[in-house]
Amino acid sequence: MLKKLVKIFYIDKKYSGRMLWNKDALVINNLPSRLRFLSSIKKKSTKIHESLNSIKVDDKASRSGSAKILEKLLGFKSIIAKDIVLKNKKFHKISVNTIVYNFTCSLENGILPVTLEQFPEVLAELDLPLKISELKELPYDVNITAPLLSLPYQRLKTYTNGEIETNRIALISEILLIEKSKVCQIFAKKNFLLSLNLNQLLNNIKLLTDNGITKDEIIKDLWVLRYSTSVIEDRLDTAKRNGIDSFKTWMVRAQPEIFETYIRRRSDNKLILGDSSLTQYLSERLECTEEVAKYIISKQPALQNKSLKKMNEMIEFLFKHGFKPIHICRIPKILLHGVETTRKRLKELEATGMQLDSLYLLTKSQRQYLQYYELLVKSGKNKLKNT
Question: Please, what sign has the CA dihedral across residues 153, 159, 164, 169?
């Protein structure tokens, strides 16, 4: 039965032509390119046909067996096949026989080998024929919707019934300016987008983009769309009332106390800066040019989100202990550290008789600092013994 299926799936010219037009008509739009593509499909088909003929069917489930069959069917290198199996637990419980059956079933239904290479996890689905049948109800090529095959069957069935009416894939593709295949990949990973009220989903995207959040930012942080429109509006309004004009998706997702701390810090910073920028502030406090201040910020971008109140306390503390602006300009990372930790380290180092001419040691991690401090103490004891 297996050999018969393989013969039908791979040798039939009509099937090869159907693969070409369904998957690549938009890309391959001239005759020579089409012919070259068709030739490559035939060559690959022959290789896979030969591989399948040499496969010994095994009803037992094993990681090594799953990895080896992926090597033969899809041409993966051994290390890649093993990594795929390791990361997908479904391959640990499925037999080689089922993987081969899923492979031939996929080809029979128009799924290209290149699609299976991109989404090999679909070969580990126990009810793949039923899932493919559901996808074929949608008005899209099955190679576009293939990522959805990893969804549980009942969820996929519910979704496909709704998709026929709402056309969710096409709408999200148009609004976010991404390919339909990318939308399907997103839906497979972020299942909540399948059942989220479509009007809410569209309203949330519009609300975020109207407030300056780019579509790329939304795609990178899709969890923000899970919140109700009223919650998003409330967070954005709160940010606006506190003088924040650059919005980020994390502001919606953040816990109330974290968001409030951010708002408070921004308000404190505004009081210190006035109409000045962070560059101008550092330039004035560290007695350097604005070019140097910009360089400092580029080397330590976290300074842009640092509380200026705490930064100002650190600068005053360092000046009080004899350090000059040049010391801070050389090691600006010190401005990201807390005053209390710095005070403690200075006392410990002074107790050993060490005089610091750089802030470098004060910025080290606790482990690195302790290693150096212990060596310093040990060195001092050895000197006492030798006198």
Answer: negative
